Amino acid sequence: MNRSTHHVVPNAKGGWSVQRSGSERASRHFATKKAAEAYGRKVSFNQKTTLVIHREDGTPPPSSDQG
């Protein structure tokens, strides 16, 4: 994972977390994916990082630059 990326990922204990690449701990935990996305967008904009929103199974979406 690129250090200049934030991820919205499912949390093993339930809910969703926002986590910066390379970090073991989440920045913040949320009950819903929608709330995690909103916070992730705000943080990503402020820190000028890319936001990657993962699926419920934890996998990232397919890259849009794949041919």
From TrEMBL:
**Disordered: where is this region?**
1-38
Q: Which domain of life is it from?
A: Bacteria
InterPro entries assigned? DUF2188
Pfam families per record: DUF2188
The name on file for this protein is Uncharacterized protein DUF2188
